[in-house]
Design goal:
Elements lengths: L6 H6 L1 E2 L5 H7 L2 H12 L3 E2 L1 H9 L9 H12 L4 H11 L2 H4 L1 H30 L6 H21 L5 H17 L6 H12 L9 H8 L4 H13 L5 H14 L5 H6 L2
Parallel strand pairs: 1-2
Length: 262
């Protein structure tokens, strides 16, 4: 028996919230994110009365505990449809609630920032499709790289050298982000390492390169550098040099390291 009258919706590939949508979203604002997740996962459209409040009630997510939002956000981005999820969140204005700093950078210079984010999420989706693991640390490195770069430029303008400026920027951006989404320390530390090691890829001196490939976060940082090269943020020749070097000199990753990678 179809008590909720859902069979016609299934045939039409539409989703609707049972009951009054505004009331249901207000009772538990996390349902806003679940509506997006299920629409993307099932490749369905939300009916207008279910969809309209997504533009209007996003601010309610600010009252949700950060730890709970973390679980929901990871479900959104680690299920193999991160690109479409990101686009839907941006479309409904929910990205500005969850990742305000990133949304601000997209509003200011989206054409130069969006390619890296979407390509990074696309790479993660491909890994999920291949049955390979991904880590929240890499996803957050991708999503927050633009605000970290912007903050680093501002700090450098105060006379701080580039490398310590990047560290200060990372601390600032992650501290603000954690007020909304509480990324566990083991992941935020890895995200910091991914960002910090981007400076090291600028050199092709063998002694420094040898130290870098032995770093436990090398593979994730290297993948991030390759992503930046894909969108023109890193010189292609530099990326190719590191690809050859790590293939020849880099240690083969253990099972544990493979599990942590990207």
């Amino acid at each position: 028996t179809d008590y909720a009258g859902g069979l016609p919706d299934l045939r039409q590939r539409v989703l609707r919230l049972i009951g009054d949508p505004r009331q249901r979203y207000t009772e538990d604002p996390v349902r806003l994110l679940r509506a997006v997740r299920f629409a993307v996962k099932l490749d369905c459209q939300l009916v207008p009365e279910t969809e309209a409040p997504l533009w209007q009630l996003g601010h309610l997510l600010s009252a949700v505990p950060a730890a709970r939002l973390t679980d929901e956000v990871l479900k959104l981005f680690m299920a193999g449809a991160a690109v479409r999820t990101f686009q839907r969140l941006d479309h409904y204005g929910l990205l500005a609630v969850l990742f305000r700093q990133t949304a601000d950078r997209l509003a200011a210079e989206g054409d130069s920032i969006r390619p890296l984010i979407e390509q990074g999420l696309r790479n993660s989706d491909q890994r999920v499709a291949q049955g390979l693991p991904i880590t929240p640390a890499f996803l957050f490195a991708v999503l927050l790289w633009a605000p970290v770069q912007q903050a680093a430029y501002q700090i450098q303008a105060q006379g701080i050298a580039p490398y310590p400026a990047l560290h200060q920027a990372a601390d600032r951006v992650l501290a603000e982000q954690n007020q909304m989404i509480a990324l566990p320390r083991r992941f935020s530390a890895m995200t910091r390492d991914i960002w910090a090691m981007q400076f090291s890829f600028r050199t092709t001196k063998s002694r420094r390169a040898a130290r870098l490939v032995r770093h436990p976060r090398f593979r994730a940082a290297y993948d991030f550098m390759l992503l930046r090269a894909q969108v023109g943020d890193v010189d292609r020749a530099t990326a190719d040099w590191w690809t050859r070097y790590q293939a020849k000199h880099g240690p083969a990753p253990s099972r544990a390291r493979r599990h942590r990678r990207q």
